[in-house]
Amino acid sequence: MSRIADFIGVSARENVEKAIATARENEQFNALLSLSEERAFDRAAKVDAGEITGRLAGVPFIAKDNFLTLGDTTTAASKFLESFKAPLQATAIEKLEAEGAICIGKANLDAFAHGGSTENSAYGPTKNAIDQERVAGGSSGGSAVSVALNIVPFALGTDTGGSIRQPASFNGVVGIKPTYGTVSRYGVVAMASSTDTIGVLAATAEDAEIVLDILSGRDSKDMTTLPDFFEPKGLSEPRRIGVIKEFMTEDVDPEVRARTSEYIETMKAKGHTIEEVSLPMLKYALAIYYIVVPAEISSNLGRYDGIRYGARAEAETLGEVYGLSRDHGFVPENKRRIMIGSYVLSSGFFDAYYLKAQKARTLLINEFNKVFESFDVLVGPVAPTPAFKLGENTEDPVKMYLADIMTVPASLAGLPAVSVPAGKTEAGLPVGVQLIGPRRSDATLLALARQGEV
Amino acid sequence: MTDISTEDVHHLAQLSSLQLDDAETEALRVDLENILGYIEQLSELDTEGVEPTYQVTDLQNVWREDTVDDYGISRDSLLELAPDSVAHQIKVPKVL
């Protein structure tokens, strides 16, 4: 199944017109921060004239607003970059444009991608595509909602600890966070460099596969990219699938567990072997994540000082320019994470927090490696609940962080993971199931996801 | 449970180049205490003799040719991004 196919071989201009019209009809969801109409129509005309060709010729898409693009602003949903116009484009955007795809606009996110609900955007939250009183998930909430509302057949997102998978799950679309290093991070606003990944949100697994095939590969502008290993393929033989015990406890919403179990039953019916597996280190993954990631954030966000680009606060001295520009430009969650990072890296605490977490990370990776000796794929829910109500978790950061508890393990280990729609709750809210594989098993995960869709 | 004082928050804000107002300072003090309270559970884990993981690519020493690449970006286009500039230099308030 491919929704992308519907956009190929028809008028690119009409594709863009339709996407922009649908975006306008759905403004109340606040999924988009900007539309780049002029550039989009200009490129559509070139596609229709045969000047631009490729595998995605004339297919419209949306990029999360932390990808640098020409045409309009790149804000990262922050006040800091409110009027920032990028002088270059992200490699991911360049690769899609080279295949004829057309970026029609930029999607809302938690400011600097810090969050799991898109409520941390400086431009207001994105509403869930199914229930406007609920969150879109995050941080790629705008991207997920744009696909769920059929504005575009696919959107780009970033996933540092679940930011593609969780909103995909909350809105009933497919989301892949590839193996760390699969897609170049060049031209994407950095959050935590050791777990930041670029991925795809799409209507179907086949569409995610088509786009990832274009995005993957070495980039001389990002020295952590891996030589291209991604090759779409079918499933030649049954797989050994492990059901993660720690993700199916009573702490998890009963309907989420029920949908997950039903999905596992359909996999069994297709001939795969299913067995429960325990990974005791998973209980520490969230604590590791909220040490390592804030540490990297505090370093990466040091560049926002109001000097070279972005908003500069009026002040008498240079020190005040830094302090006030940063105070005005960041939302509270950005400040929390920067200060936690400063704390765990500061002298006297470095060994007890940061070094300890990086050692614990090794133990988590070792445990995954051991389990992958007996299993090809691990399965469990994406998140402990379906989409929660707007405002439900905003007063308590730790409660908000707990929504990431099932997605951060794959991020810390650099593993690929896919969020696949697995039905709805009685109230009609989508539930996603997560497939996690060993490094470079991205194609196998998408093949399994495709099989589950039929 | 880690106690975080107002002075601790001031110190961290200084390390982070954040000029906070009083209301923000108190809200962050409470949040930091709660977050640190959660991540402290790692202390129960035995990590004696374990090597830390800093990156997950397995790549080491990725070399490139020592040639200049401007990535297609001009000095002028970068200077245009600065809030204030003069004579091809970024202009800032006095340092001292």
Give the topology:
The complex is a heterodimer of chains A (454) and B (96).
Chain A: H1 12-25, E1 32-35, H2 37-48, E2 60-64, H3 91-98, E3 102-107, H4 141-148, E4 154-159, H5 165-171, E5 174-177, E6 197-202, H6 205-215, E7 240-244, H7 254-269, E8 273-277, H8 282-300, H9 318-329, H10 332-345, H11 351-371, E9 377-381, H12 397-402, H13 408-413, E10 417-424, E11 430-436, H14 442-453
Parallel strand pairs in A: 2-3, 2-4, 7-8, 7-9
Antiparallel strand pairs in A: 1-3, 4-6, 5-6, 5-10, 9-11, 10-11
Chain B: H1 6-15, H2 22-39, H3 75-79, E1 85-86, E2 89-90
Antiparallel strand pairs in B: 1-2
Helix pairs in contact in B: 1-2
The CATH top-level class label of the domain at 6-44 in chain B: Mainly Alpha
Tally of individual helices of chain A? 14
Record field, number of beta strands of chain B: 2
Q: Which sequence of strands runs across the widest sheet of chain A?
A: 1-3-2-4-6-5-10-11-9-7-8
Name of the top-level CATH class of the domain at 4-215 in chain A? Alpha Beta
Estimate percent helicity of chain B. Answer: 25-40%
Based on secondary structure, the structural category of chain B is mainly alpha
Largest interface: A-B, 69 and 54 residues
Sum up the overall morphology of chain B in one term. flat
Write a concise synopsis of the structure shown:
The complex is a heterodimer of chains A (454) and B (96). With 454 residues, chain A is α/β, with parallel strands linked by helices. Chain A has 14 helices and eleven strands.
Overview of the molecule:
The complex is a heterodimer of chains A (454) and B (96). Chain A is α/β, with parallel strands linked by helices and 454 residues long. Helices cover 37% and strands 13% of the residues of chain A. Chain A has an eleven-stranded mixed beta sheet with strand order 1-3-2-4-6-5-10-11-9-7-8, sandwiched between helices. In chain A, strand 10 and strand 11 form a beta hairpin. Chain B is mainly alpha-helical and 96 residues long. Chain B has a domain of 39 residues: Histone, subunit A, CATH 1.10.20. Chain B is built from three helices and two strands, in the order H-H-H-E-E. In chain B, a hairpin with a 2-residue loop joins strand 1 and strand 2. In chain B, helix 1 crosses helix 2. Chains A and B meet through helix 8, helix 9, helix 10, helix 11 and helix 12 of A and helix 1 and helix 2 of B.
